[in-house]
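In this supplementary section we document a worked example of the pipeline. Step one takes a protein sequence of length 188 as its only input; no multiple sequence alignment statistics are reported here. Step two produces a three-dimensional model, which step three serialises into structure tokens for compact storage. The input and output of this example are shown verbatim.
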Amino acid sequence: MTVTTLYVARHGQTALNKEQRFQGSTDLPLNDEGCSQAELLAENLPASITCIIASPLLRARQTAEYVAKMHGLEVVLMDEFRERHYGVFEGLNRQELEAQYAEIWGRKIAQQWDDAPPGGETMRETYLRVQTGLQRLTARHTGETVLLVAHGFVARVVHAILTQQSEADFFLTPMLGNAEFETYQFGR
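The serialised model returned by step three reads:
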């Protein structure tokens, strides 16, 4: 059996993360703390990484570049691993959402598999997109040690796919903190 090792890391902190706002597809850079976190992530990952894949969103690309520089690797961007688009929720915090979108916020629309905030992606759409990306990643990098730098929701989806987690249990998995990572191994 050929074993693939996949490290899944969340990007470093941004201004919206610090303020606990929905970020989604909003494309902001790392803040100073996020840059420090990305440097520490690069130091904590093993030298055995053979490939770095990242979401095309700036915060993930920047985080991946810190690791790439330390490990002498290039970063490959894959659109399938961009963060979920939260539509009208993006840029808002919980209090603003409760005030501006009380009815849809009250329905926990951001946690519904087949519904989404206006202008946003459903959980299922994001899940299927990430699943396609994982299929491409594993087909191209079988037997390698790969780092995927992405986002909090994407990391949850990857976890759900690789552990065969049910839809009902999806939110039982804690969100990765900024610049934290998980490790998975699987074989063919």
